[in-house]
Design goal:
The chain is an alpha/beta fold. The chain has a single domain (4-196), classed as NAD(P)-binding Rossmann-like Domain (Rossmann fold). It is 34% helix and 22% strand. It is built from eight helices and twelve strands. The chain has an eight-stranded mixed β-sheet, with helices on both faces. Helix 4 (73-80) links the parallel strand 4 and strand 5. The protein is globular.
Length: 217
């Protein structure tokens, strides 16, 4: 049976991930409790996207993007029930807002670690959480594409997501093991702080830049 890319959570992030995936030549299954609510998005995306309940959307999934509020992440995955061995891409951040964003991780240390502990048969990867929905739709910045940092303990799963990020037009960056998901969640805190309170607005992201070889120090 064919393996699918699925998205659970179709707010701004999930919808723009769907747009970017389809624009990059992929087909995607969209999982929603009320699939009929996605009629406009499906009409926009055309034959490359289908809507279904989360469990049906994820039934044959090789890779599932999870883009829901962090406090609902475990229950959302439980309802979606991806098959054992599937890659679960955690795009979420556990935050509070009190005069700006505050990182509030679960006891496991990050939302990604919480998901891996709850679903050991899945291969959890942290990615696509550290910039706004605008960049999910279009990664191009003035100086080039946005970087996509990817962390996970399963090396093959991490490489799969890095390759997918490249195909979507991002610069893929290997952020190492899943323990670094906490770092990426804090990177999201910094992005929100700068976007909403630091005057940068939402049309920016973090990029790794190297000094040209031989340039004077």
């Amino acid at each position: 049976m064919p393996k699918d890319l699925a998205i659970v959570g179709l707010g701004a992030v999930g919808a723009n991930l769907a747009r970017r995936l389809v624009a990059s030549g992929h087909s995607v299954q969209l999982g929603a409790r009320r699939p009929a609510d996605l009629a406009a998005l499906i009409a926009e995306l055309g034959h490359a996207a289908r809507a279904a309940s989360p469990d049906l959307a994820c039934r044959n999934a090789e890779l599932v993007f999870l883009a829901v509020p962090a406090h609902a992440a475990v229950e959302a995955v439980r309802a979606a029930a991806p098959p054992a061995g599937a890659i679960l891409v955690d795009c979420n951040n556990p935050l509070l807002f009190v005069d700006g964003p505050i990182w509030k991780p679960p006891a496991e240390g990050s939302t990604a670690a919480q998901l891996q502990a709850a679903f050991p048969a899945l291969r959890v990867v942290k990615a696509f959480n550290h910039f706004g929905a605008e960049l999910h739709a279009d990664p191009m910045l003035r100086g080039g594409p946005a970087d996509a940092f990817v962390a996970g303990d399963d090396a093959a799963a991490r490489q799969r997501v890095l390759g997918l990020a490249a195909a979507m037009g991002f610069v893929p960056r290997d952020a190492g093991p899943l323990r670094n998901a906490a770092v990426l969640e804090n990177l999201a805190v910094l992005w929100i702080q700068l976007a909403l309170h630091g005057g940068l607005g939402r049309e920016f992201s973090f990029r790794c830049e190297q000094r040209p070889a031989g340039e004077a120090r």
